[in-house]
Amino acid sequence: MSAEVIYGKQLAEELRQEMKEEVSELHNHNIHPKLVVVIIGEDPASMSYVKGKQRASEKIGLDSELIELPESTSEKELLDLIDQLNEDQTVHGILVQLPLPDHIEDQKVIEAITPEKDVDGFHPINVGRLLTGQETFYPCTPYGIMVMLKRANITIEGKHVVIVGRSNLVGKPVGQLLLNENATVTHCHSRTKNLRDHTKQADILIVAAGKAGLITGDDIEEGTVVIDVGVNRVDGKLTGDVDFDSACEKASHITPVPKGVGPMTITMLLHNTIKAAKRIHNHQ
Ligand code: NAP
Questions:
Q1: What are the tens digits of pLDDT across the range 191-250?
Q2: Residues within a 6 A CB radius of ligand 1
Q3: Residue 192 CA, closest ligand 1 atom number
Q4: Is residue 154 within 8 Å of residue 174, measured between CB atoms?
Q5: d(Cα 136, Cα 152) in Å, to the nearest integer?
Q6: For 257-262, which contacts have Cβ atoms below 8 Å and span 24 or more sequence positions?
């Protein structure tokens, strides 16, 4: 079997075109969705991520602002800025790029953003809403994975989904989204014994471990749907957690790295920002 490749990049482009039309329609109703991204310090990887988010926002017509603060910014200064953004009626989405410098507590900052503008979906209230099956902002990477599965017509209900990873960012929320859609979910992690025994049972295998080549064709059965979330740099090249060529021989569907899950993450951030603007305006 040679797997059907699910290109997130192509789907992301289609969705962004639809969003561009939606934003233009919102402008006609005098609603101007705005995303503010805050970055502290000059980490090149973080800077490249936020620039990508800003470019993507502008391309679909969102108002976007990048606030760059020096590494020396205190926790109080950042929390005060978040308070101002929470109050600012022209701002609909607030994203603080993580990780933060050591002297600032990530969780304090996450909890300072009002849940109504928490387009990353990390605030405990939004996490709780996800856990209890309520409508909320879903974290962007897990949400992007769900959209990819659905657009590829992959049935979720009743399927055994094995997830390698249990982070708050990816593993746990994607597991919860799938459980909410009636999948049977197994989480594996660094203490899991005999990982292959689990991955071989998967109808859908989601790998979010951050370990290049952790999963190969030997770890899956024929017909598995493989979603590779990992982003690793090996010899200067981006590569996933899955050995693409050997997995392709057995998988029914597979996502590549790059051009797979990554472009969907930013797309869902744009989606969440538009949703935040619509919700805030509906409540005014
Ligand atoms: P993370 O916080 O480091 O979590 C990694 C998870 O994988 C942990 O639960 C860890 O187990 C587990 N793990 C690590 N090594 C393992 C092994 N050998 N066997 C089984 N489980 C193992 O990472 P993350 O934030 O979830 O991100 C995961 C990967 O996805 C990274 O490569 C990241 O760059 C990528 N990512 C991509 C996107 C995108 O848009 N494409 C977005 C976010 C993240 P423990 O819990 O026991 O430590």
A1: 999 999 999 999 999 999 999 999 999 999 999 999 999 999 999 999 999 999 999 999
A2: 141, 164-167, 169-171, 188-192, 195, 208-211, 214, 229-232, 261-262, 265
A3: 20
A4: no
A5: 24
A6: 257/228, 257/230, 257/231, 258/9, 258/231, 259/7, 259/8, 259/9, 260/6, 260/7, 260/8, 260/9, 260/227, 260/228, 261/8, 261/141, 261/144, 261/145, 261/148, 261/227, 261/228, 261/229, 262/8, 262/231
Q: Cβ–Cβ contacts within 10 Å for residue 22, how many?
A: 17
Residue nearest to atom 48 of ligand 1 (CA): 190
Neighbours of 126 (CB within 10 A): 23
pLDDT tens for 116-146 read: 999 999 999 999 999 999 999 999 999 999 9
Average pLDDT of span 22-42:
97
Question: Which tokens sit at 19?
Answer: 């969003």
Question: Please, are residues 220 and 195 in contact by the beta-carbon 8 Å criterion?
Answer: no
> Ligand 1 pocket check: which of 164, 196, 206, 266 to mutate, most ligand atoms within 8 Å of Cβ?
164
State the burial class of residue 138 (Cβ atoms within 10 Å of its Cβ: 0-12, 13-18, 19+).
Answer: buried
Gap from CA of 40 to ligand 1 centroid (Å): 23
Length of the chain: 284
- The predicted model scores a pTM of 0.97
Asked if residue 240 lies in contact with residue 259, where contact means CB atoms within 8 angstroms, the answer is no
